[in-house]
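User: quick one, sequence for these tokens?
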């Protein structure tokens, strides 16, 4: 194992610790609602941000200091990165990870060579997984960086691009399967369009569905038991992405007969870009039985860009954990830090600081969410707010058994309905009561 980070394994020291390299709230073995924190939170690290993000922005070059990386596309360099990543995972106490094929393994001149190198890297990943007990939360294919994908991958106007993308996805699923991946994510990198002037929208959507159907068939063919996810995002890089939010993804999957094969991987910053809260996206997915996994980060709402900041907002993490606890927790999913350090936080140690900040924020969110549930006042209020619907008439309307004729007759002889206060501020006050403890 490599030794690039001059730190010990990060330990829990409690809320009063002043040590930047200690957990203040994340105590993996502490039990909440009968389950250790680590099993509630199922943290994962993103290979692309930890190992491949130079911390550049549109106005300046990368700043990240990476003494283990010689900047080349050699296999040796790629293998060294794997070792460094697993050193990081061990020291930060994260047992799951996610990658794109091209994060871990470079592209070569032909598909054959590219696949051969990928197999070599996968062998190293498997070794390190076996040595450390770390496992793969999900894999994915990078279908958005190479110039061939500039006009989409599955939704490219060019058939040859679709064919190339299909080959790439096939291999990425195969490697994910060989690594025992618990899932596989489809984020529609450039699956969208910039202008309708040059776009056949429905054809592109059909092509995307065709790609996903082939992926489902391949999954069954090789016996891959992991969960397929779609990750919604409304724009960036294209102006209009087809998988724009949770509801749009569910509609897409339903329209093309794919719903039973997919769940959603929801990302906080994408929810923000879609003009939603993360809790809204989670609720929509959860109620449809399709909340699968989470890309944990946060954005700056007034910025309009996927800034992928580490999630440190306790109000946000509390809301996320309220939804997750209400769902009964993750099955195949986890909290994947699809987050990057700020460009100013360029030292290797900042990888630790940033993940610690995110992990602590979620651990605290979990504690607060659990306390709010135990208190019960919010849940009781919501139940009482809809109590009139628990009447025989309400039940019959909900069951689709009432008619306009019946309700018209009833309305004529009923007094004007009265409303009760929504008490939003009281309820928000209850959340704050627990947040401030
Ligand atoms: C980009 C996406 C991407 C996916 C994986 O905005 O969040 O990182 O999670 O391709
Ligand atoms: Ni993401
Ligand atoms: Ni994103």
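Assistant:
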């Amino acid at each position: 194992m490599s030794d690039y980070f001059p730190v010990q394994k990060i330990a829990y020291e409690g809320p009063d610790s002043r040590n930047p390299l200690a957990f203040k709230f994340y105590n993996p073995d502490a039990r909440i609602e009968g389950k250790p924190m680590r099993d509630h939170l199922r943290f994962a690290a993103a290979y692309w941000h930890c190992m491949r993000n130079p911390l550049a922005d549109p106005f300046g070059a990368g700043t990240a200091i990476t003494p283990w990386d010689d900047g080349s596309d050699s296999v040796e360099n790629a293998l060294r990165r794997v070792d460094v990543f697993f050193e990081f995972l061990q020291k930060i106490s994260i047992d799951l990870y996610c990658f794109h094929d091209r994060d871990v393994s470079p592209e070569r001149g032909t598909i054959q060579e590219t696949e051969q190198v990928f197999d070599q890297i996968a062998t190293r990943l498997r070794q390190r997984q076996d040595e450390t007990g770390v496992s793969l939360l999900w894999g994915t294919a990078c279908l958005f960086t190479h110039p061939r994908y500039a006009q989409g991958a599955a939704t490219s106007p060019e058939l040859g691009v679709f064919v190339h993308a299909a080959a790439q996805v096939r291999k990425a699923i195969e490697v994910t399967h060989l690594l025992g991946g618990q899932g596989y994510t489809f984020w529609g990198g450039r699956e969208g369009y910039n202008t309708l002037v040059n776009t056949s929208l429905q054809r592109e959507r059909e092509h995307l569905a065709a790609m996903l159907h082939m992926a489902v068939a391949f999954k069954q063919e090789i016996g891959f038991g992991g969960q397929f996810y779609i990750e919604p995002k409304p724009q960036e890089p294209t102006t209009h992405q087809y998988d724009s939010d949770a509801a749009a993804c569910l509609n897409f999957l339903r329209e093309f007969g794919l719903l039973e094969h997919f769940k959603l991987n929801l990302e906080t910053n994408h929810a923000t870009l879609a003009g939603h809260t993360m809790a809204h996206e989670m609720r929509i997915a959860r109620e449809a039985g399709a909340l699968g996994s989470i890309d944990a980060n946060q954005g700056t709402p007034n910025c309009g860009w996927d800034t992928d900041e580490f999630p440190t907002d306790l109000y946000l993490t509390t809301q996320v954990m309220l939804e997750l606890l209400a769902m009964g927790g993750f099955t195949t999913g986890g909290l994947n830090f699809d987050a990057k350090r700020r460009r100013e936080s360029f030292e290797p140690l900042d990888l630790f600081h940033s993940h610690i900040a995110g992990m602590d924020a979620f651990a605290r969110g979990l504690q607060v969410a659990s306390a709010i549930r135990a208190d019960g006042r919010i849940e009781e209020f919501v139940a009482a707010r809809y109590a009139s619907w628990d009447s025989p008439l309400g039940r019959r309307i909900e069951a689709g058994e009432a008619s306009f004729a019946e309700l018209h007759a009833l309305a004529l002889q009923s007094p004007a309905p009265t409303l009760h206060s929504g008490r939003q501020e009281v309820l928000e006050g209850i959340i704050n009561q627990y947040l401030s403890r």
